[in-house]
Amino acid sequence: MTKKTKGLLSILVPVITWGISFVSTEFLLTTLGPMTIGLIRFVIATAMLYVAMKMTKQPLKIEPRDHLLFLLAGGIGIGVYFYFENTGIKYISASPAALIIAAIPVFTLIFEAIIYKRKVDRIDLFAVFLSVFGVVFIVDIKLSELLRVQEGIGYLMMFGAVIAWVIYSMASKPLFERYSYLTIIFYQFLYSIPFFMPFIFFEANQWQAVGVEGIAHLIFLSIFASVLGFYYYAKAMDLLGVSEASIFINFLPIVTIIFSFFYLGTLISMRQFIGGALVLSSVTITTLHEQKNKGHDGVCENSRDLAIESES
């Protein structure tokens, strides 16, 4: 199995689990505060990762220079991100929230080009904007919603989540060279917990109203959306690259809508089918373009090696 194939299979896990997580979060917000949900989710996930690291004998020690990267990725990329995302979902529904998250590939591409000098060509830009345009079709957002104060706050919150997630991606990239995926997400989760804790004291939680269904949603968010989702997203970022992996985030509203259809009975429109096709096209363009570039680079390297051999 090639590196590319492993990356594509890995990204399926966060796409599916995170797409469903929008619906789970929206359900839980009727009884629990946004940061309480995040704290429960990541405390459980961190405990599970600690057990997994002990069982697999993964080293817990990290280099002092990397604490800042873990703080940025965990504190801002997870803690601050989920504050904005979970609070934003209180003001707008899950599908429009997914639309704002669709801007992540655009900002990831820009910041990776600035910070890590990633080469950006027209195909990359076309694929990213095609993906965003597809999400616009999927969620069918209306301009009048942006002009209402409540929805406006929600959209600002989701935009803050986008910036926080870009910071997560940029801070995570250098860590792949030095640590296992388990170690990376364990410390990212650990650093995120203090960012959740101060807020829970100001939230009006209705613990008695959570119920069995609410507990099931919390378990799903902790195990599947957090442990498995972040583990395989870290793996996908390493194998595909942070910008390439981020484009797949635009599949989230597709998964959200499909899950809402089966779980909530929400109908899927032709417009949403068209949007899904556009998102799928953007990912296909990116994947094929990346394979072509790597194939060209491989031919160049082989030609260079043959030339050196002939000279010697």
Structure description:
This protein is mainly alpha-helical. It has one domain (3-277). Helices cover 80% and strands 0% of the residues. It has 13 helices and no strands. The protein has helices spanning 3-28, 34-55, 67-91, 94-101, 104-115, 122-139, 143-147, 149-172, 181-200, 211-240, 242-247, 252-263, 270-311. Helix 2 packs antiparallel against helix 9. The model is unreliable at 297-312 (pLDDT under 50).
Q: How far do the termini sit from each other?
A: 35 Å
Q: Care to count the β-strands?
A: 0
The portion of residues forming beta strands comes to: under 5%
Oligomer: single chain
**DSSP helix fraction:** over 70%
CA-atom Rg in angstroms: 20 Å
The major beta sheet can be summarized as: none
Q: Give the low-confidence spans.
A: 297-312
H/E element sequence = HHHHHHHHHHHHH
Mean pLDDT: 81
What overall geometry do the principal axes of the alpha carbons give? globular
